[in-house]
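Service request form, structural biology core

Requester: graduate student, group of Dr. S.
Request type: structure prediction, single chain
Budget code: on file
Notes: please return the result as structure tokens.

Sequence provided:
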Amino acid sequence: MRLVVLTCLTLIAFAANSILNRLAVDSGAIGPGAFAAVRVGAGAVTLWALVRLRGRALPLFAAGRWQGALALSVYMLGFSMAYRALDAGLGALILFGVVQVSMFAWTALRGAPATRRQMIGAAVAFSGLIVVLWPGGGTSVDLVAAALMVAAGIGWAGYTLLGRREPDALAATAANFVAAFAPVAIVGLVPELVAGAGAPNAAGLGLAVLSGAVTSGLGYATWYTVLPRLETGVAAVLQSSVPVIALAGGVALLGEAMSLQLLAGAVLVLGGIGMAIRG
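Core staff response, request fulfilled:
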């Protein structure tokens, strides 16, 4: 029962990142660059504290650290900037669809044999993304924002693949957050300050800290706690439920619209991912 509760809380936390980001940026309470910087900073502090409580050192200079920090930076910046124009559920759908397709493509390029079911599933998921991004049909998608979310998905896929080599996932994640703070702040926050963007208000800062410390920092820590007790296929299927949670949350909490085109695309993306994973 404890495993079920922790797993459900983690998936809700992942979906909440989309809702919190969209709510903060779309309302003008904080700029997307500032949101990303505060989110990374709050997550770094939280994860560092968790590592210290376990009596571990922060592996800041481990091999491959800059690659992990770079991938995390691309994800954070693309994620925040995309939500200037994307609904929470739509952004999560593009993100997780790209993550799964990217990881599948990387595995195939590395020489791992792909089954017929996996190839069909990847094609179905990709067709779902095309349906979502296709103009017309009641869903208007900002292509620049969609491209930013695609970049975020590729960044998160790379970050996930790099993380498989880490002996201590929590300590490595904390180190990556610490190392990513400077590039995220320079690329995201500094241009906003130079352009004379208004200072974030208390609500915007609070949402960014909540996203970084709780739904990112504690969310990732909880995920690493339950992940060893879940089969790989089960874990992947569970993650594919995050866009559904984000879609529901966006409709219920943010008043976002649910069109037939978006619903059809979501079914194709999630169905294709499920098919590929089962294969």
